[in-house]
Amino acid sequence: MGAGAVGGLFAAAAMAGAAGRWAVLFSKDKKILEDARRGMLVMAAVEVVNFPLAVSGGIVRGTALPWLGTWASIGGFYLVALPLAVLMGFKEELGLAGMLLGFLVGGATSGALLLVFLARMDWGREVVKAQRLAGSGGVGGHELDVMQSRNRTGCTRDNFLFNVDEIDS
Question: Can you tell me the mean pLDDT for 83-104?
Answer without folding.
Answer: 94
